[in-house]
């Protein structure tokens, strides 16, 4: 049996008159549906402070809520599957020119779909909670500001376990919006795309193995983007044509490797941080091109890790990299740069650092504590400075400089160390 409930402007719970299809205030309506294949449609036009509750206990249920030109309305959609198979639950919320709307979607079952679309809206709060397998949540915002979206896919904080969850948030011409994505269990995929706006906050937090988090920023200013992952995970942050953004990746726990990559092009005054504390086989990469006044921090704790940073064609950039553990490798490059700085440190044994700079008035500092470490520094240009400090046994330090007015210093403490300086 298929039941369709249509409530327009919410003041007509009994659907008694077409004269009240819009401009309602402080009204309430409830739709309760039991049985498979039910559909509930709620349409709000110029309504204010109204409340709608949609409760569907079924498989194949669909709920749609549309709000146009309203304010401070509250909508609560709850969908619960009746079988253990594919429940096919779907909920869609569309908000246009709304203010202060509060929408909650709660889905329990499998093959769950939640979609929220906002256009020219302000101060709206949308919460999506999904528990089950193959959950999908999609949020799209255009020309909206000061809105909040919370997506919880099986973290156990507000719902049950979820495998194979997917969350996608797209924001265009938005200001000061907040996105918070939480994914539990395994194989979660989360993507945030922000363009032509500013001062937005996006956070992805994933637990479980095989997760993937990605944040894209285009022509954004003053954004805060962060990805936090545990167990085997992959993360990417890409930023272009913006400035004053803060990007952070934190990966910890698990026995499998972590992978983190941050790419920035013509994004000035950005701060980038990668922190990896998995036991081994972590990889972190920072790539900044034609950017100025950028700062990149890379911290790895564990063994057999790789860290690489590249800054090309910029000025006043800083890279700070540190590794704690053994058999780690670091490769740092600043090319065609002006007044930029490389600072690298390793604590442990059998680590290796390679650092190179080309440009003018560059500074390079390497410090290693442990046995069997190797450091190789090269500089090309004018008025550059290189310093290598090693404490331990059987360490090797090498510097090569080409240009005018350069300076190199190697300090070694311990036995059987080797130092080489070449200047041309």
Protein architecture, described:
- By secondary structure, this protein is mainly β.
- It has one domain (48-422).
- 0% of the residues lie in helices and 62% in strands.
- It is built from no helices and 34 strands.
- The protein has strands at residues 4-8, 28-34, 39-45, 51-57, 62-68, 74-80, 89-96, 102-119, 125-142, 148-153, 162-163, 166-172, 178-183, 189-195, 201-206, 211-218, 224-230, 233-240, 246-252, 258-265, 271-276, 283-289, 295-301, 306-312, 318-324, 329-338, 341-347, 352-360, 363-369, 374-382, 385-391, 396-404, 407-413, 418-423.
- The chain has a 34-stranded parallel β-sheet that branches.
- The radius of gyration is 27 Å and the shape is elongated.
- Residues 1-22 have low confidence and may be disordered.
- InterPro entries: Curlin_rpt.
- Belongs to the CsgA/CsgB family.
- Keywords: Signal.
Radius of gyration, CA atoms, in whole angstroms: 27 Å
How many beta-strand segments?
A: 34
- Which ranges are low-confidence, i.e. pLDDT below 50, for 5 or more consecutive residues? 1-22
Shape: elongated
Average of per-residue pLDDT values: 87
Distance between the termini: 86 Å
């Amino acid at each position: 049996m298929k039941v369709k409930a249509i409530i327009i402007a919410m003041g007509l719970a009994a659907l008694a008159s077409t004269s009240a299809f819009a401009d309602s205030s402080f009204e309430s309506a409830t739709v309760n549906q039991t049985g498979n294949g039910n559909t509930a449609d709620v349409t709000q036009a110029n309504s204010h402070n109204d409340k709608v509750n949609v409760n569907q206990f079924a498989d194949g249920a669909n709920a749609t809520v549309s709000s146009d030109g309203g304010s401070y309305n509250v909508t609560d959609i709850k969908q619960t599957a009746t079988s253990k198979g594919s429940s096919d639950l779907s909920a869609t919320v569309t908000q246009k020119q709304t203010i202060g709307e509060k929408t909650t979607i709660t889905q329990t079952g499998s093959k769950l779909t939640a979609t929220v679309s906002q256009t020219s809206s302000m101060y709206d709060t949308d919460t999506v909670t999904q528990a089950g397998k193959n959950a999908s949540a999609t949020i799209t915002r255009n020309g909206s500001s000061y809105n909040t979206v919370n997506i919880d896919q099986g973290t156990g904080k507000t719902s049950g376990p979820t495998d194979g969850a997917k969350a996608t948030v797209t924001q265009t011409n938005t200001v000061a919006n907040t996105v918070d994505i939480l994914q539990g269990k395994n194989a979660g995929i989360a993507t945030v795309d922000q363009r032509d706006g500013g001062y937005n906050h996006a956070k992805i937090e994933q637990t479980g193995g095989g997760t993937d988090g990605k944040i894209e920023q285009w022509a954004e200013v003053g954004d805060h983007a962060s990805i936090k992952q545990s167990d085997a995970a992959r993360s990417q942050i890409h930023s272009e044509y913006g400035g004053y953004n803060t990007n952070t990746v934190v990966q910890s726990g698990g026995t499998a490797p972590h992978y983190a990559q941050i790419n920035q092009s013509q994004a000035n005054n950005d701060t980038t941080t990668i922190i990896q504390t998995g036991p081994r086989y972590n990889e972190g990469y920072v790539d900044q091109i034609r950017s100025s006044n950028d700062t990149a921090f890379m911290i790895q704790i564990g063994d057999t890790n790789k860290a690489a940073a590249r800054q090309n064609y910029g000025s006043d950039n800083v890279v700070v990299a540190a590794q704690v553990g053994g058999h780690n490798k670091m490769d740092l490059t600043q090319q065609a740069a002006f007044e930029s700085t490389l600072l690298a440190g390793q604590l442990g044994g059998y680590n290796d650092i390679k650092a190179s700079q080309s440009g003018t008035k560059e500074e390079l500092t390497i410090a290693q504590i442990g046995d069997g470490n190797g450091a190789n520094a090269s500089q090309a240009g004018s008025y550059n400075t290189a310093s290598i400090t090693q404490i331990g046994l059987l360490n090797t330090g090498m510097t090569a400089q080409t240009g005018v007015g350069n300076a190199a210093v190697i300090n070694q403490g311990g036995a059987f160390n080797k130092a080489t300086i070449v200047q041309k």
